[in-house]
Design goal:
The protein is an all-beta fold. 0% of the residues lie in helices and 44% in strands. A hairpin with a 2-residue loop joins strand 12 and strand 13. The termini are far apart. The structure holds 2-acetamido-2-deoxy-beta-D-glucopyranose (5 copies). It comes from Mycena venus.
Length: 368
């Protein structure tokens, strides 16, 4: 039910006081309260879907009953739409529209993952997204094509039993209106001895998709795919290159190749985006459970050099059993200038029954 195990392990970040090309300075912050969500949902991330419509994907999701208590079952992921947030002089809670049919996972589990709910023999397969889909095509009628990279993860309690690869899902809207459908495009697109490129974060810029995955020492490695054809063709392995020992190569490295680790990065949950304001790639993420301390790091290129992460915001924690985690950013909710960003974190508070209710505060950060 809880997800913070992925973020527990310590990663030592060095806070060097060396000069950087970009110095993010907070001008102001505006609280938008918590997401107004009809479901009890963990760890939501987002992608801009169409003009003014944002797609949210969340982890464990439950219905809330008439007494305000979460109801079983909990399903491993769901999706919703929202509009863009109101202006900062009039901050209003952002409304997530309900999932269309509660009970069906947005990213379905595969045949060998004990579908539909992932429960078998006292263990659980989880389909917990860490980041929003990579949107590679949109048209004016609301047709959208996107891809998502999902970790195939099998847990006993919160201990990982196995991670047999990472699958590529295709996420498609044929027209404006209903939530998109997500289907497995290629199972085990990355094997269990490769990096799960695209599972941690992604950013599209200059005709490439840059796809980040966690390394065993809890930093990031990056692959890039030169988008091809109308829909980007991320299912085509021939368009991929990997950053290995200081250069781009066509050969997929092993997950434990130490020369793929990008200095100053962290695989704690976070978000990548391109900032026109800073002419820079940006990573925003957290210092993980049980805090909501937000860190920012920038780089002139997707592969770095990444600046040492600096803390720029500290979110209030909850009074349930999970104080705070899943500190992420939402470039999807901005105008794309890089002048400001939205951030959320997940915390819990007790329901009347004493069970945990998830709560997702939304804050706008304007940069100097
Ligand atoms: C559950 O356990 C039984 C007996 O140990 C085994 O035969 C079966 O394959 C297991 N099922 C799954 C889906 O792992
Ligand atoms: C990495 O590249 C450097 C040259 O830039 C080379 O000296 C070194 O042997 C390479 N390391 C590996 C593991 O290939
Ligand atoms: C890296 O992983 C491969 C495949 O699991 C394994 O054969 C190899 O021994 C590992 N290398 C190191 C240095 O751990
Ligand atoms: C890490 O960030 C610091 C501060 O920006 C920088 O001085 C250092 O060179 C970076 N390390 C690497 C290996 O890029
Ligand atoms: C927990 O926090 C909520 C607000 O998020 C508040 O309404 C509630 O009274 C607090 N409960 C306790 C036991 O402090």
């Amino acid at each position: 039910m809880v997800v913070f195990m992925l973020q527990y392990a310590a990663a030592t970040l060095l806070f060097c006081a060396t000069a950087r090309a970009v110095t993010p300075i907070v001008a102001s912050t505006t609280s938008y309260g918590s997401l107004n969500d009809p479901l009890n949902r963990d760890s939501c991330s987002s992608s801009l879907w169409t003009n003014n419509v944002v797609l949210w994907v969340c982890r464990d999701s439950q219905i809330i009953d008439a007494n305000g208590n979460p109801e079983d079952p909990s399903i491993a992921n769901t999706a919703s739409f929202s509009s863009l947030p109101s202006a900062p002089h009039n901050p209003k809670p952002l409304v997530l529209s309900p999932s269309e049919t509660f009970g069906t996972l947005f990213y379905p589990l595969e045949a060998d993952e004990c579908p539909p709910l992932g429960l078998c023999n006292g263990t659980r397969w989880v389909g917990w997204p860490d980041t929003g889909p990579v949107v590679t095509f949109r048209d004016l009628n609301g047709a959208v094509n996107a891809y998502a990279f999902m970790t195939r993860q099998h847990l006993s309690g919160l201990d990982v039993i196995e991670t047999p690869g990472y699958s590529l899902y295709r996420v498609v809207s044929e027209h404006a209106g209903p939530l998109p459908t997500a289907k497995v495009e290629i199972s085990k697109f990355w094997s269990g001895t490769q990096i799960g490129y695209g599972t941690a974060a992604s950013v599209l810029h200059n005709g490439f998709a840059y796809l980040y995955g966690a390394t065993p020492n809890r930093q990031l490695a990056v692959a890039r795919a030169k988008l091809k054809g109308l829909f980007g063709s991320l299912e085509d392995k021939s368009i991929y290159e990997y950053y290995v020992n200081g250069s781009w190569t066509k050969t997929t490295p092993l997950y434990n190749d130490t020369t793929i680790v990008l200095p100053n990065t962290s695989s704690k949950q976070g978000t990548m985006y391109w900032s026109p304001k800073w002419q820079s790639y940006v990573w925003i993420g957290g210092d993980s459970f049980p805090d909501a301390n937000f860190l920012i790091s920038t780089a002139p290129k997707p592969e770095g050099p990444w600046s040492a992460p600096q803390q720029f915001y500290s979110g209030a924690v909850g009074n349930g059993s999970l104080p705070a985690y899943s500190a992420v950013a939402h470039p999807s909710l901005t105008d794309g200038t890089g002048d400001y960003i939205f951030i959320t974190w997940t915390r819990t508070r007790p329901a009347p029954s004493g069970e945990d209710l998830y709560d997702t505060p939304l804050v706008r950060v304007d940069w100097k």
